[in-house]
Hints:
Mean pLDDT: 79
Helix content: 55-70%
Amino acid sequence: xxxxxxxxxxxxxxxxxxxxxxxxxxxxxxxxxxxxxxxxxxxxxxxxxxxxxxxxxxxxxxxxxxxxxxxxxxxxxxxxxxxxxxxxx
Length: 89
């Protein structure tokens, strides 16, 4: 009876191990990549960092030189009428 119990237990254990899903392994690079792309807290922090980065050029623009251009355009027209030939002498 003990042999039968031992044999049936062993068969059940082997069947259970064979039916289990195969092990899945990842490299540390894959794990970090998944965490970087799928973590909502990291996504929020990246968005906050982009907003902060956008403020840098805006702040520096106050220190940059400005160029102001002014000008005027004047147009004059002098009309010339040819002399009336009938009124001449």
